[in-house]
Design goal:
about 180 residues, alpha+beta, 7-stranded antiparallel beta sheet, 7 strands, globular
Length: about 180
Amino acid sequence: MNASKNLTALTNAKTRRQLIHGIAVAFGGLAAASSVRGETQPTMTEAQSTGTEGLLTYLHQEIDIKASPQRIYDALLDSKQFATFTGMAAEISRDAGGAFSTFGGLIVGRNIELVPNQRIVQAWRPGNWDPGTYSLVRFELKAQGPQTTVVLDHTGFPEGSFRHLDSGWYERYWEPLKKFLG
């Protein structure tokens, strides 16, 4: 299957298992097509890192927020709350398989897995990536007394995107979310 057929299968998937399988096949097809042609993955238009972090295609962050897992879960999946804490328009489905568009359409994707107050997994992409290029974003919410540790794992993004994405999560998500919930 080529990458565009894989993406079509992903967007037409009816069950969570089919959707997860579709994403895995799409990522594999994109990687295989690039390696066969000797191409590298597309990069962001921002200045790219020259250090070893420029080669990374994953990041891991753990953030402590003084709020319950439910409040954080709701803020990340509620269009109105998300738009309020980011200051930009958001349309977010609260269903597994449902689409989302955040930051005024700058970030789009689909919810892959939703476990209320515990986990959000999304196929996620900025609009400036090549069509069909998605990364996987996983939020784990772990109650720690009066606060919650949000464990973010963002995987499968193009090489050279690490520095921009790593700082972007803090600037666009964690700092505004802490202020909103504080």
